[in-house]
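Repro case for the chain-ordering regression, as requested:
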Amino acid sequence: MPVLSILIVLPLVGAIVVGLLPRHRTELVYPIALAMSIPPLAAALHILWYFNAGDASFQFGEHIVLVESFGISWTLAVDGISLFMVVLTALLFPISIAASHSITDRAKTYMVLMLILETGVLGVFLSLDLFVFFAFFEIVLIPMYLLISMWGSENRAYASLKFVLFTAVGSAFLLASIVALGVLTGEQLGTLVNFDFRNMLSVEFSSTTELALFVGFAIAFAIKIPLFPFHTWLPDAHTEAPTAGSVILAGVLLKMGTYGFLRFNLTLFPQAAVDLAIPLAILGVIGIVYGAAVAIVQPDIKRLIAYSSVSHMGFIVLGTFALTTQGLSGSVVLMISHGLTTGALFLLIGMVYERTHTRKIADYGGLAKVMPVYAGIFLFSAFASAGLPGLSGFIGEFTILIGAYLSLPVLTIIAGSGVILAAIYLLWAYERVFTGPVTNSKLEGLKDLGFREVAILAPLIVLIIGIGVYPKPVFDRVEPSVEIILDRIEAETEFEVPEFARVSDLVDIDYEAEREVSDHDDGEEG
Amino acid sequence: MTDLLWLVVALPLLGAVINLLFGKRIGEPISGWLAFGFVAISWAIAVPATLSFVTGSGHTETIYLFSWIPAIGVDAAILWDPLSALMTMIVTGIGSLIHLYSIGYMRGDERYPRFFAFMNLFIASMMILVLAANYAVMFVGWELVGLSSYLLISFWFTKPSAAAAGKKAFIVNRIGDWGFIVALMIIFISFGTFDFHTVFASAPTAITVGTATAITLLLFVGAAGKSAQLPLHIWLPDAMEGPTPVSALIHAATMVTAGVFMIARSAVLFEMAPVAGAIVAVVGTATALLAALIAISQTDIKKVLAYSTISQLGYMVLGVGVGAYTAGIFHLTTHAFFKALLFLGAGSVIHAMADEQDMRKMGGLRKNMPITFITMGAAWLAISGIFPFSGFWSKDEILAATFAKGGGFILLWGVGLLVALLTAFYMTRLFVMTFLGKPRWSGDVQPHESPATMTIPLVVLGFFTVSVGLINTPVRLAFEHFLESSFEGVAHIEALTFGSFSILATVALVVAVVGIAWAWPKYNTDELPAEDGKFWQRSLLAFGVDEIYGRTIVAPGKKASEWAADSMDPKVIDGAAHGIGRGISGFGSVLGKMQTGQVRGYAGVLAVAGAILIIVFVVVGGGF
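-- result from build under test --
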């Protein structure tokens, strides 16, 4: 069963169904669209369930030649990295759609665009043919642009255009690089062009070519992530986007960039990746500190979270270009976690915006008194975002920091200051919005979160705790796939992935024995 | 016996979850009793396992629970040794008493169940911290106690000062945590594990003195945050905004001692780095002195106790700094009892005085609240270092160990003595101003003794305050023997002869008596002495450290952030982007015309992008 194709097509089918709804039955749009976002989630969970943990190779592979003469094929597969991006996508879309209850203006178009967007994002994470990958990468842009420009707030025209312009510049580089890479691959195979990722792995480049291609890919992804100094489109886009747009943007669209780094830059151009690792890690670290510092003084809560994203994405880039197993695994975990925590924060901001129609921090104060449940969930999400141990953000950040220190100690120590800054911008914002007396009379009598709203947030909360307490199932699936990437880098270049000291060989430790015993006990009980 | 120890963490956590989700339905006072029950049961579970160490039948165990972060080989595991057993007894034992006390103290509070949820969360977090079998899990507890502390300090969040205090505590602690995290990085790169057993067993062969010094100094940065040592001490006085039971449990007896505990736990590493140890000792002494100099002028009863806590923590840090781990932990133990008692007593007074905390408006309360008076009296003598109360023994042990180290440490010993004098002075001042002399409160306040849920904890703590010091005297070193196996591999401090110990103890005792004799007549008068000299004013303002930080760190930091937000991003980066756009294909004008944001705009953009594409293609094409 071509389950990956089915997964990609399901949201599109949903979009068609919603699009075909009779014009006057507006009340059907929300429930049908929500219902249509569930099958993709089910399909994604199916893949998660049957994914073979510990197996590094691509799974659920599909391969259909589309245009033989141009070497374009419908090649889909999933590994431990894309697996979680797919599940995250399939999870965040139903949640975002459920949170779009208040969209009544052109609701049908809105939902159709959301579902098309989902197909696009899934396609990006699953395609292993770079031509098709690029097509999906671009498809994503259009509905996102429309969502911001049609359902955004006051300054939406500027923000949506800025979003498109920045991304389009990156896309131009990406397309050029992909075409060039396709030509080179074709040469190797004796055909005109070929875009199959697997064929690209065996292409030999001159070092300048490799560097140029790497940079082409990297610019596109750096803008998408966004990496400092390409980040200025993000705060604008986030601020103006409707809630669901922000959730999807932060939750999965930014990950297309970090995913691209892992999948393409590191894998296809190992030598260039090794050569440029330090400059890129530096940009990541600048992003961590800079994004966090700028977040502190933002007067608009959505802008604040947007800048916090710049900071968090910097951690992911640092982890990626540390080129250690821990750094890479931590990056993938933080990608998941950031989707959950920032998704939750944007949902929360959207929920209160629907009540007050303001995002300015100064308009709030004492909100915890009026909306205690809301305040509690917000604080929880803020701490999750700030990397509190026991919650998902910590697992990613901590693993990155430990892993990155191995190869980039000074940068990593600087990056560690991000934990201080995160506490400052989140807790200061919380203080101003939620504590003290209620100063704005408009806040009095606001209704606390209702059942529907709590239900929307609940899955995120559960996963944030779940991954924070027991991330092993995630690591078990991610680690083999990142190790393959590093193995390839080691094989293709002179780079050696640094290893940690293993003192356990030096000392006689009964702890391991104890552990085996207790594992054994567990087994018996189970 | 140790199979159930995970419950010591799990039960309070369960209590927190229950009260968080269903607290409103459970209501007052049952939610409080429930929370108390969970902590008390945790204590009961740990008692037999602790007693096994006392009887000598127990042995150190690592209890594996589950694999937590496999990427860096971190397991959730418990290290059960005398040190963690002792800490468990203190945290759950005093914790139970303070939960009991809170049932009365928090009566009528709007968010009563929420308070107990947070208190239980704190106990669970603290137990993770002390039971951790590796640095990573310890860090989890470390951060979670920070969270609980934040939640409880700003419990009355409608008060802006309380909210600000909670935030400040968390942020200042996070500065320390940065040091902790960097230490963790170096530990992992050096050992490939965080596991205590492995790290300590292999440290002497696996790392150099330089590495050990780096690790221990960075760990100490973390410890300085949590244990409010210079220069990170500024959060603890503000933390008094929290309800008084919180101050007693978290900001006196348990959480703030976590830094001392962490250093003691890492004794093997500190032993390898004598320079780091000396720095720790100096910082501890300086903190003890500075805080004592501030405590003497404070008029808010809780502020006196807060600075006193910082000062006493300084003693403990001095103790572990000079390598007297047992003495440091011993003082941690006695302090936990007498300082918890002092805070609960202060809470009882504040309660009785209708939330008045200014000692200048108290006086003569001994008749109105005899139990509070007597129990606090015991604590006053204990902290002042009067024989044979508990503080006398533990403080002396630290001072004696410092003296025994000789050399420059004699100077630290001298400062320590001075602090002892100041301690006796300010505690006498507090005690006399509160309980003796004539009442200075206005007629409509009617002080009364607190209810039994509050006085029973006072009495129990009072008993231990008087007696707990006797577990470790020069004649009977039971406490030291108890902890012996936790400090295996650590050089044993040369014990002073009984004679020299007695001389040093006598000196300290005389100093304490002088402090009391100095303050007693000064404050036991009808009219309080004017304290308006220049020194007093500076001291009252805590020597302006907060203000200095505000000027030198906070304000410039904010300015830098504002510059980045208001100039760098919109002008420099966006300016460059716009410039590039204009330069390539007249984006600027396109941008100007497209304010409506229509779909055709995108088509135009794509066309422009296509143009760039061709340029780029040509450029990149040159590469092959």
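Ordering looks correct now. The longest strand of chain B covers residues 61-69.
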